[in-house]
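B., you asked whether I could sanity-check this one before it goes into the benchmark set. Here's the sequence:
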Amino acid sequence: MPPTSRTEPEQFVDTATRPETRGIELIGDDERHGRARDLFWVWAAPNVSVLNFTIGATMILLGLELWQALLVIVAGAVPWIFTGIVAISGPAAGTSGSVVTRALYGIIGNKIIVAFTGWLISAVFLALNWLASSFMGADLLAGMGLTDPVVVPIAVTVVVSAITVLVAVFGHGLILRIYPAVSIALIVIFLVVTAFILPHVDWSYRAPEPLSGAVLWSSVTIGFTILASTPLSYANSPDIARYLPRSTKPSHIIAATALGGALPCILFTAVGALLATGVDAAGMDAGIEAALLDLLPGWLGALLVLGVIVNTVSLNGMTTYTSSMALQAVGIPIRRIPSAVVVGVIGTALTIYLVMSTSLLDAVNLMLQFLVIVSGPAMAIFTTDIVQRRNRYDGVELFDQSRTSRFWYTGGWSVPGMTAVVAGGVVTALCLSTDVWTGPVSEAMGYIDLSVPAGMIVSAAIYGALSRTRLGSLPSDS
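And here's what the prediction gave me:
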């Protein structure tokens, strides 16, 4: 089993020049370092992404006017606040968020939840982002005469995933060191691309069939669900913040994390919506990534593909890093570095399957909508627990997995946490509207999608109420 306390004989060093062997082990006060503002760049690098262009174009495909799409994009960035809030539990506990959530779900229950929220969601996002780089890399190589529709995308996937796993192996120290430079480089590339996109924007764009009433609200709410699913999936944010000193102000952690993710998402998702106004139906059918490359000069197209690959490595490197700790928290007897390799192999296999079976636009929209069934309730419960406990987590207690543990609850299960996440997931599914599944509540309301707010409100309310009873551990914290 991986060591779970800093009293273990192994010495851990958090540096950019050596692989990080620490996984979920506790971080002592003498090992804490960094500043909250460093988190801004750590979160900006993964979110200067071509997927933002894809999602922005989706807002127009949903039938929204340009101004409506821009408002939905801004609203969809608001859930980044939750990503920032859960991040503050990392420095408080000195360990991974996948261990902190033992306080929410119980020692055994947490293993089930982490298997979904900390690993399954991570694997899906690995595949989505590698899929983007695979398609765009294949489009670029096609211009050089490499046109095999199967071998080329798979080859790009394997190369990019190998680099990604290497970043995850070096871990937190490397991420903290290089992501600021990566963020700045990506922002410059994407701003130059934006400058070439703007002349093609139809500023007088009007939806072919203007929407109104329930149909309009259906498109608005579906768009919001797609957008909100990204920040709600980042319940791993404590993992990146956990090295910060305990004295770091929580408000600074929240602001740096939320703004680092939200600002690039708003800007470049808006650019994606603008781009869609100038692309005809045939271009959209070919894929927004291919349409984008067609608008750019060859040198900039190549630079953009390089930027997409760098962004993919930065996002998936961080995702692989945190999901490797999730595997440890589930109880699998594996060290962090081998765990990162396992996660990378699984994500690569899923990406190869998607490369051969779907388009980027279809894959992104469908997966992002379905993910909120798990991620929305889980994020609401985590946030509620932090507020109710006033962010007080004892790392040593969290590693006590015996039957006398404070977090053993009822046979290893937290009734408040498990009830809230299941009920919230059911409500989310009932209110969800996708191409392959429409919940009865959504259908009765004219396909309006209230899955995110409904699921989160129900989860937070149930957990908040039950955790204050004898079934929870909050009374001794109050």
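One thing to flag: The two ends are 34 Å apart (CA to CA). Otherwise nothing jumped out at me.
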